[in-house]
Amino acid sequence: MTQQPITLGISSCLLGNPVRYDGGHQRDPYLIHTLGQYVHYIPVCPEVECGMPVPRESLRLVGNPEYPRLITRKSGEDHTEQMQSWADKRLQELEKKTLCGFIFKSKSPSSGMERVKVYSEKGGAATKNGVGIFARAFMKRFPLIPVEEDGRLHDPVLRENFIIRIFALTRWREARINMKMGDLVNFHTDNKLLILGHSPEHYREMGRLVAKGREMESNQLFADYEMLLLEALGRKSTRKKNTNVLQHMLGYFKRILPAEERQEMLDLITRYHDGQLPLIVPVTLLAHHVRKYDVSYLARQSYLNPHPAELALRNHV
């Protein structure tokens, strides 16, 4: 597991800060008490930080969903330039914080990362295809940094995927310090099966990249690898992909496991694939066999331990 703290940006109201337009908040106990044990949060409230009071008139997005304006609902005051000017400066500050991710407030005209209502100029029915102005600017400035919003994090698959990504990015940044070619090979070896569980295509491409790494300039090599790593882990893992990884791991026990134990493992993998068991069940038994039979290659795989067990993420996927 990582040694340095994981720094995440977060919409301030999710931490219980009373910064919403009505003076309220959207305190999220999971983010505060569970995930909060492992991360350091940098709270951001775009509307307050760009100079709006609490309480304040509520806002909405109006116009072209690609370039919406930020307008107060009743008075029609336009705060678009005010928000964009502030966002440019805030993003420069956040760039210095080496964020490993950001958790946005869903549906917010400033911070929602998807499906935000955008109203027509003539006041017609809203469409749900907008992005909050600050969230859009953040994702454009940091396209590979993992982002999520509070509503989507209630989905167990999306929650685990986001947390896998922030821990993996932190491990990468630790390894990247004074990295040499051998360090890259070691990092890739440790994370091969985790990558395979998210994107077999990236798994193959990254293997080819590392194989020809000595032919490349090191900074370019490491930058290319980081981009592929974050792209790969940005793809959702599935039961089919995880089943492939579990079967791949079981292959290392072909001449080790007694027939009855191998069959037990196969049965658990099948039941997981069919949706009858959560991922934690076959992974736990495989990890037991890895320790018992001292399979060194598998013992180093981050796939078996990509995030703290106390988060219990694999109990639900």
TrEMBL record:
One Pfam family named in its UniProt record: 2-thiour_desulf
Domain of life: Bacteria
Alphabetized InterPro entries for the sequence: 2-thiour_desulf, DUF1722, UCP037004
Start and end residues of each DUF1722 domain: 192-308
This protein's name: DUF523 and DUF1722 domain-containing protein
Organism: Desulfobotulus pelophilus
Taxonomic lineage from the root: Bacteria, Pseudomonadati, Thermodesulfobacteriota, Desulfobacteria, Desulfobacterales
